[in-house]
Amino acid sequence: MTSSPGCPPSTAAKAPAATLYAASFDAGLISGVNSHLSLPPTAHSLEPNLFTPASYGRYLVARNDDVNKAAELLQFTHNWRARTGITTMTFSSHLALIKSEGHTGKIYFAGSDCHGRPVIVFDNSCQNTKSREKQMLFLAYFFDLAIKQMAIYNASPVPPPTPIAKWVIFMNMSR
Questions:
Q1: For the chain, how long is the longest CA-to-CA vector?
Q2: CA quadruple 146, 148, 149, 151: dihedral sign
Q3: CB-based burial of residue 102 (10 Å sphere; 0-12 exposed, 13-18 middle, 19+ buried)?
Q4: Cβ atoms within 10 Å of 8's Cβ, excluding its own
Q5: What does the alpha-carbon distance between residue 164 and residue 149 come to, in Å, rounded to a whole number?
Q6: Who contacts 106 (Cβ-Cβ below 8 Å, separation ≥6)?
Q7: 75 burial level (CB within 10 Å; 0-12, 13-18, 19+)
Q8: Whole-angstrom Cα distance, residue 63 to residue 69?
Q9: Alpha carbons 116 and 162: distance in angstroms, whole number
Q10: Which residues on neighbouring strands pair with residue 171, listed in sequence order?
Q11: How far apart are the C-alpha atoms of 166 and 110, rounded to whole Å?
């Protein structure tokens, strides 16, 4: 068991990050999701974090183990990300968007919690724009950063005792 100051001890078994969610699903469910997708050949290389057993497991959880519904949602996610350009979004390519949407601090990283999960803060009192499309792109940019942060942490020379596969969202909805 491991523990950080102020955190309860972790009793979760060690598991590779890629199988954290997928472990509770048999290979048939995972391959069933994959077989229902109609993706271009470049999809897996453009979205390496979207097409993993762990990701398939999250989509299965979100759709109560219904393979068809999980595949439909994953396909929708991929299509939306490709259409909006999120698959190739970087800080430098979307600097104007990041500056305009983020300069008030309505969404920001607040480090990690005691289990190593990235903490994303949404502060509604700092809302400064009205474009839902730009707000969603900004949000997707932050979620992608959180996924990358988890992947880096899990692949570190001293990996966490339990792979990080979730993030924490703190929402200030006071306004």
A1: 47
A2: positive
A3: middle
A4: 10
A5: 9
A6: 122, 123, 124, 126, 127, 128
A7: middle
A8: 6
A9: 9
A10: 122
A11: 15
Sheet holding 118-123, edge to edge: 107-112, 118-123, 168-172
Contact between residue 102 and residue 108 where contact means Cβ atoms under 8 Å apart: yes
d(CA 40, CA 33): 16
Output the six-digit token pair for 96: 């104007």
- In this structure, the chain runs to a length of 175
Beta strands in the chain (DSSP E): 107-112, 118-123, 168-172
For residues 113 and 150, the answer to whether their CB atoms sit within 8 Å is no
What is the chain's pLDDT, residue by residue, as a tens digit (175 residues)? 444 556 665 544 444 434 444 444 567 777 778 788 887 777 777 777 788 777 888 888 889 989 999 999 999 998 988 888 887 777 777 788 888 888 888 889 898 898 888 999 999 888 888 888 888 888 888 888 888 888 888 888 888 888 887 889 999 888 6
Which tokens sit at 61?
């959880």
Q: What token pair was written down for 27?
A: 């290979």
Are 71 and 37 a contacting pair, CB within 8 Å? yes
Q: Which two tokens stand for residue 14?
A: 């060690």
